Amino acid sequence: MKANLAFGNPARRDVLRVAAVSAVGLALPPAASVSAFAGGGGSGPLRSAGVLAFGPDNVLFVGDITGAAVHAFALRATDVTSQQDVELGNFHNFEGRDLVRGLDQKLAALFGTTYDQIVVNDMVVHQPSQQIFISVERGRSTDALPAIVKVNHGELEVLELERIPHSQVGIPNEPDPTAMLEFDTQRSFAITDVKYYNGEIFVTGVSNQQFASTLHRIPYPFNAQMATCTVEIWHPVHGEFETRAPIIRQLIKEVQGEPYLFAVYGCTPLVRFPLASLKDGAHVRGDVIGELGYGANPIDMLTFTDPFDQKEYLLVTIDTRSASRIAILDLGTAKPEPTGGPIDFGPGGLGRTQGLLPIIAEHFAFLNPKWAVEIHRHPKTGYRLDISSLAAPYFFERRDGMSEMNWPDGPDPFHYREHRSEISRGG
After folding, report:
1. Domain boundaries, the chain
2. Residue 59 CA to chain centroid, in angstroms?
3. Sequence-separated (6 or more) residues with CB below 8 Å from residue 205
4. Which of 181, 226, 247, 293 has the fewest CB atoms within 10 Å, measured from its CB?
């Protein structure tokens, strides 16, 4: 079956010489979807919709800061639609596709509001089907209405959570709603990330305790058990020990047979924790093994295998600059940065040898070994928010740039012209 992508399978970054389409002008979805969300039915047990992660057996985990919980939705076969027939682009020529154009405008139309009242908090891909799921909130205050939205062949569909088998676990000791940082509420960092590994979810964030940076290890399926520890680091860029600033992004990975939790904090220090050290009641100091660059924050933290050299890499996307690429084998052997001493703006450790990738995305994930997907605004089309595909391992869109090769009679050192007709699909 041919993929039914919106806008006739448009090639990415066609420069549209028209004004942005307003939410009023967008086609409305079926009335049932609108009414379900408007009445709160689409939210199910969620009070907010934050970070997302998939576990085994099609279980979708959702961080819920307002509800002080992590939810587990056991998706059924009818909740997921295969996207393996969707056109992703030309892999050889680094030409992706816009899978959804004007995401914020379409979400606004779907939820009966304006685009400035739409917040997209996270994106995750269900790997067996390659279907994209995003966590969304309508509104920007404490009474924002949460939802999980999936992309089905270019169309947006609200996941009706109240019909899906569900369990949840409470996250203790969240900060008081009135407790403030200098610029944000403390509670807004109560659940910064959720990851599943080997029968447990790992939940990071801020608590109301003396050592606020907290990590919970929670068995899944949920029961009464929970192991909670506090974590700290020496942050060379700040020249201090930090016990309150939380882990922002994390992943658990075995390196040379040993499992570690790798984390990135605000201002992007890369930190290593032996998994065995993260025990209930422990206070654990992680090893900073890289300073990736000051004045920035991590957005997503993933691993991938380069389809050309077949080596595995860590990929960290960052809000203000290029993404970082580091060999997985280096994560286990890197020497810790020394503690103490004056402020050092780095880069340090693995930050000195990191590869930089041209990814500037609000959210980023992998569809399959050759293709990634991003939610982003490009300078040429900054008036809209798009979901687009990107070819690994270079993660750039050839149509976005200017080079000698763009002339019809220009040089063609990468043989783009002879591969022009090749199209990749999800499968």
Report:
1. 175-302+324-357
2. 17
3. 171, 189, 190, 191, 192, 193, 214, 246, 247
4. 181
